Amino acid sequence: MDTLADLARRVSACTDCPLHTGRTNAVPGEGPSDAEILFIGEGPGFHEDRQGRPFVGPAGNFLEDLLQSIGMTREQVFIANMVKCRPPENRDPTPAEISACSKYLDRQIELLNPLLIVTLGRFSTAKFVPGQAISRVRGRLHSVGGRRVFPIMHPAAGLRRQEMRAGIEEDFAKIPGLLDVLRIQADPASETVRRVGEPSHPSYETGPPAQTPSLWDIPEPTAENAPVPPESDSVEQPPAPPEPPPGQQRLF
Ligand code: SF4
User: Fold this and answer.
1) How far does the centroid of ligand 1 lie from the alpha carbon of residue 215, in Å?
2) Could you report the average pLDDT of every consecutive run of 10 residues in the chain (252 residues)?
């Protein structure tokens, strides 16, 4: 799987887990190979299975609205899922199915090397931040194995429960600022950054920041600092993060 196209061909012919038996089309994922953001959802639903494309049903429409709210389009980002074939009746993917399919997502991450990974919902969030309810970790930047991961509730949750929409929109609104900082971190010598919403890749001067900001990252969970997960997800706001180390600037 040397390219995203190779990977998509492998996925389309894959029979490595029982989900292949019920699919109309596999849904490898789509987006530009130089996308700065990789969105990871859960798995294809009815519309995605029919079209072979990710996030094309009602949740996809909401995702496009959310992208538009921050000046972006889906053509600027890569969209993938934890499992590439539709679970029957839209049930949750099993751990065995997720495990069988993880080689494809892992390779997509390697090939894309995105600046930011946005996990949509509890399954993709659990891949990077295991053992914690998404309601506790959403809307905050996590540093995991050298990747920057930003969990957000799944758009479908915002469609099912109106009260969740505000939290999803609030978290999305943080993405442009995160990207600006991550671009500077990735290329500290550069004084040009591309703003979210600009056409593909033209850069323009924004002027150097007064001080290059440092990201305040949530450390990877350890036995010492891992909070006890709640019994169920809720819409509560996450607890206030601890103060950053001296010399670092907190973003959120
Ligand atoms: S879900 Fe993934 S592992 Fe299972 S058959 Fe589809 S592509 Fe293969």
Assistant:
1) 36
2) 95 98 97 98 97 96 97 97 96 97 98 98 97 94 96 94 93 96 85 46 32 42 42 37 46 38
Output the ligand 1 site: residues, CB below 6 A: 11, 14-17, 19-20, 26, 83-85, 97, 100-101
Residue labelled with tokens 């609104």: 173
**What total of structural domains would you count in the chain?**
1
Count Cβ neighbours within 10 Å for each residue of 129-159 and write b for 16 or more, e otherwise: beebbbbbbbbbbbebeeebbbbbbbbbbbb
Q: Answer yes or no: is 245 within a domain.
A: no
223, part of any domain: no
What residues make up the domain containing 147?
Answer: 4-205
pTM, 2 dp: 0.78
Q: What is the CATH number of the domain that holds 10?
A: 3.40.470.10
Residue 57 lies in a domain: yes
Helices (H), the chain: 4-12, 46-51, 58-69, 95-112, 122-128, 134-137, 155-160, 165-173, 175-186
